[in-house]
Specification:
Length: about 160
């Protein structure tokens, strides 16, 4: 079940508001491909770990389970001048390679996804998927945050509150 953003509290709302403030209204065209990076990705859903391993990724067009493919390379919403690997691109690559799915709602105003389901386990009224990189909560969307070689990325089922 997808919840309206107005019902989200705490870190989820902070990330959405930060992304909104960062949005300049400009849209970037396709950026030059960046070198791939290898990151450690941990995906934890409501009933345990879905994926835990290394993923080599670049920024690219990602496709959630319900379609609506969009570019996800760090240039989203003008967040960075050059393209690179992003957390959502890493999630997309892991899903393709390991045989699980993910879904998200695309928000054109943020030029980014809100991940709403992983491996068929959707967010609910009390939980969402928290994105962290190197243990810190993301302050921008998963298509805006550039990753470096060796980063530790996590999408974690988290209680709202």
């Amino acid at each position: 079940m997808h919840l309206p953003l107005t019902r989200r509290t705490g870190t989820a709302l902070t990330a959405v508001v930060t992304a909104a403030l960062a949005f300049t209204g400009a849209t970037a065209g396709p950026a030059a491909a960046a070198d791939p990076v290898t990151v450690t990705l941990t995906v934890t859903a409501s009933d345990g770990v879905v994926f835990d391993g290394e993923v080599t990724t670049t920024g690219h067009t990602v496709t959630p389970a319900t379609g609506a493919a969009h570019l996800c390379d760090g240039t989203n919403a003008g967040a960075n001048p050059t393209a690179g690997a992003t957390p959502t691109a890493a999630l997309d690559d892991a899903a393709d390679g390991a045989g699980f799915d993910w879904d998200g709602v695309w928000y054109a105003s943020f030029d980014d996804y809100l991940v709403t389901s992983i491996d068929g386990r959707p967010q609910d009224a009390d939980h969402f998927y928290l994105l962290t990189v190197n243990g810190a909560e993301a302050t921008v969307g998963g298509c805006q945050l550039l990753l470096d070689e060796g980063d530790e990325v996590a999408f974690t089922w988290t209680e709202i509150g």
